[in-house]
Structure formats: structure tokens, C-alpha cells
Design goal:
Blueprint lengths: L1 H9 L8 H13 L3 H13 L6 H8 L9 H7 L8 H10 L2 H14 L5 H21 L8 H13 L9
Helix pairs in contact: 1-3, 2-3, 3-5, 4-5, 5-7, 6-7, 6-8, 6-9, 7-9, 8-9
Length: 167
């Protein structure tokens, strides 16, 4: 059934979805157990820019049971207006594995120029605490490490990063 359901979801023409259809897909997203199906629904909601899905997608991203299946969910956020969820995205850079961390960093790049000074200060405080912790505990401190992402995020948010120097 999962394969057939996945294929049915792949066949949905996102442009033809009504608000009621989008809401129903969101409810299905919340209860979906299979990560392939859940990710496909997230991609559909992303494609139609259904911003109402943002908190639900973030909740799934942060679900510890889905730790190895959340990169696609972070990727789905890229089409959505997550500026108001900037701090949650900062936390993703700090706490996630490589793929979702990379996607979260790309979202930070998109929204960093638009955030308020208050959000900027809060984001920098979170990143600085994480940087200190990683400097003490991380075994990998090289390129593409968690520490590297945190340091580049700090530079980005401070507005000091030169375009094209990271990743």
C-alpha cells in the first residue's frame, strides 16, 4: 500500500489543489508514519507555498524519532516563508546532522538580510553558546563539521561573510 500511496501522491497536480485539499494533505502529513510518504506530502505543501504547514513541518523535523529522516523536510521549508521561524532554523544548524544542517544553513542565507536586530541578537547568542560547546566537545572541527557550520552561520548573521566562501 505504501508504494501505491506514494505513487498516488507523486501524481497530484499541486496547481489544482484547493485550500480544502491542502488542509487535508496537512492533516495526512501530521499522522503519516512512513517517511517517504510524509516527505512527499511536505514537498507538495512546499510546492504550493502552503505556509500554514511550517510549524507542522518544523515539529516533524525536531521529532527525535525522525532524526535520520528529516533532511527532506528541512529542504521542503526552502519554498516556504520561514522568516518568522528563523530561530528554529538556527537551532537546526546547531543540532541536526549534515544534510538537514546544510539545508538549514541555506535557509539562513536566504533570510539573514531580512531579520530584525532582536532576532539577529537572539540567533547569535544561540550560535555562540553552541560554538563554545562544540569547541570543547566536538571531535570533528574541520570543513563541513558542525562547528564549521555554526561558525559560518555566525559570520553570515553578523553580515561579515563574503559571498561564495562556504560550501
Amino acid at each position: 500500500m505504501k508504494t501505491e500511496l506514494y505513487h498516488a501522491l507523486k501524481g497530484i497536480n499541486a496547481e489544482n489543489l484547493s485550500e480544502e485539499n491542502k488542509e487535508e494533505l496537512l492533516r495526512f502529513f501530521v499522522v503519516a508514519e512512513d517517511h517517504t510518504i510524509r516527505n512527499q506530502i511536505a514537498f507538495i505543501l512546499s510546492d504550493v507555498k502552503y505556509n500554514r504547514a511550517i510549524p507542522f513541518i518544523i515539529e516533524k523535523i525536531n521529532d527525535k524519532k525522525l532524526a535520520h529522516h528529516n533532511g527532506s523536510l528541512v529542504y521542503a521549508l526552502e519554498n516556504l516563508d520561514v522568516k518568522d521561524s528563523f530561530i528554529e532554523v538556527v537551532n537546526m544548524v546547531c543540532e541536526m546532522e549534515y544534510e538537514p544542517r546544510y539545508q538549514a544553513y541555506e535557509i539562513l542565507r536566504k533570510y539573514a538580510p531580512e531579520i530584525s536586530e532582536e532576532v539577529r541578537e537572539k540567533a547569535l547568542a544561540i550560535l555562540e553558546v553552541r560554538r563554545i560547546l562544540l569547541e570543547i566537545t566536538a571531535t570533528d572541527k574541520g570543513p563541513d563539521s558542525a562547528l564549521d557550520f555554526v561558525e559560518h552561520s555566525i559570520e553570515l548573521i553578523k553580515g561579515q561573510q563574503n559571498e561564495g566562501t562556504f560550501i
